[in-house]
Amino acid sequence: MTESSAPLPVVSVCMATWNGAAWVEEQLQSILDQLAPTDEIVVVDDASSDDTCDVVAAVGDPRIRLVTRSDNWGYVRTFEQALGLARGEYLLLADQDDVWLPGRVEAMVAALADADVVASNLTTLGGPAGIRGPYGQQDWRLRARDSHHRLRNVVGILAGAMPYYGCAMGVRRSALTRVLPFPTFLFESHDLWIALYGNVLGRMTHLGRRTVARRLHETNQTPDRPRGLPAVLRSRLLLLRCIADLQRRGALDG
Q: pTM to 2 decimals?
């Protein structure tokens, strides 16, 4: 059977890698254990200088599609490419250094039955059960009952008070007509762009359970310490531009 005649995957996992050789095999195995034989993992490597690509290839599972680049685009553009290459109906984002908890795929797909975007909660790998928040929260988490509080959630995003992590998110294929391409000005926070889409258009759902164990290390792309005021202001301006862009896309698509 050729690739063109093979059944399309129901679930596509979209992973960006960069110098993640130390962790990526464990993460891939935690994902593969939950996928059906026809599902896929789209791994886009952002010009790693270590042997990440060799590690991914050595897993030897036909459900993994590895795409390599010789130049570094950054994680935002790498995730954008992975989403664009995915063929499934349900697209789940994955970082290279986490571990998926059992039952994640089933729970995320079920949550997407009536939503375009799902976001779940995290725990830590070998650390505390809860994720520390920016305002002193010991267990910073989303609550299912807040899923449809559109304005409150958007304000929370702008205030840096909503724990939307890309590694714990998923989208329906139908959402890609508005989610992609990412805005050209988006250089960080692809996860908040997707979360804003879900909330601005009223298509977000929160999955209250923890579905990902986040590995904490010195090179995490998402910082766990407060940023300085100039960086915060730049980030808020970026998010306001995202909202304006999403409103234009929503109007154009009816």
A: 0.91
